[in-house]
Amino acid sequence: MGIRIIGVGKNLPERVVTNDEMSQYIDTDNEWILERTGIAQRHVATTEKSIDMAAAAAEEALEGIDKETIDLVIVATVTPDDITPSMAAQVKMAAGLPNAVAFDINAACSGFVYGLWIAESLMKGSAAGGSVTNGMKRALVIGTERMTRITNWVDRGTCILFGDGAGAAVLENDPDERGILSTFIKNYDDVNGVMKCKANYINPPFWEDDLTPQPLYMRGRAVFKFAVNAIDEVTRGALEKIGLTLDDVDWFVPHQANGRIIHAAAQKLGQPLEKFQISIKESANVSSATVPMALYDLESSGKLKKGDIIAVMGFGGGLCAAGAIIEW
Ligand code: UT7
After folding, report:
1. Which of the residues are catalytic?
2. Using one digit for the tens of pLDDT, what is the confidence trace for 19-30?
C-alpha cells in the first residue's frame, strides 16, 4: 500500500514585477538580484488573496477526480488571509469537498512537505473523527502564500526574494503503488532569531508591551548556511530510512529560496544540477508554495516518468526542515 500523488496544480497572481521594476522602489539592480539569487521576476498579488490562489491550484490538481472522495485538506501557509475560518476550511467550501476534514499548518517554507508527512500518516493509519470511518482514501495538500504582505519593502536584502502563489497536490491511498517511500522531518532551535515575523493583532487596552507591526526579518547569510546543511541532512536522512542512495534519485525538488542555495546543496550532495528542478527565476521564493509549484513545473515539463524517484526538500523559519522520497 502506498500514498501516491495523482494530481498537481499551481496558481500565480497576474502581476509580474521584474528586477528592473524592483529597482524603482529600492536601491538595487537586476544584475545583483540575478547573480545573488537566480531570481529574474516575481508574481505579486494585487487583488488575489491566499485563499483565491489556493482554491485555483486545488481546482487544477483535482481535475478529473471525484470531489466526494477527498477526505482531508491540509493547507500550509504563513500568510493566511484569516485566522478563522482556516484556509483549508475555505478551500473545502470553495472547491465543494463535502467529506473532507480540513485544517491549516504552519511550518514556514517546509510547510508543504510537513503537510505530505501528516497526510501520509493519517492516510496510512486508521483515520478517525469527522466523517471519516474507513481510513482516508484521498487528500489535498496545498501551499499558498501572499509573502508580499509580510515582506519588509524597505529592506533590500529580503524584499527582492519573495513572491506570491500557490501549489497543490492530490494524494491517493493505492494498494498497488509505492508513492511516498519515506519522510524525514527535523526542527532546529532558532537560538539567534535568524528568521522571524510578528503576528499582527489588535491592541488590547491591558497589554503593556510593544505591539508595533513588524514585517519579516531575516539574517540572510545565516539562513543560507542553515539551508544548505538542512537540505543535505533531510535528503540523506530520508534516503537512509529506505536504503536508497543519492544516485537512486532521478529528480530533486528543493524549496526555491535562492538559486545559489540550490547550487550549493547540489554540490554538497554530489549530484548534477540537471537533476534539480529550478523554478526560482520566474516565480521567486513563495515560502510553503514553492515545493508544490516546482513539482508542478517538473511534471509539466514532461521529463517525469512513472517510477522515477523524486526527493522533495523544504527548509525555513522555525527553524524547520523536511524531506520526502516519492516514487512517481
Ligand atoms: O525561504 C526562506 C529562507 N530564506 C533564505 O533561504 C534566504 C537565504 N539567504 C540569501 O538568499 C542571501 O543571503 C541573500 C540573497 C538574502 C543576500 O545575499 P548575500 O550574498 O548573503 O548578501 P549580503 O546580505 O551579505 O549583502 C552583501 C552586500 C551588502 O553590501 P555591503 O555591506 O557589502 O556594502 C548589502 O548591503 O550586498 C548588499 N545588498 C544589495 N545590493 C544590491 C543586499 N541586498 C541588496 C540588493 N541589491 N537587493
Report:
1. 109, 255, 285
2. 999 999 999 999
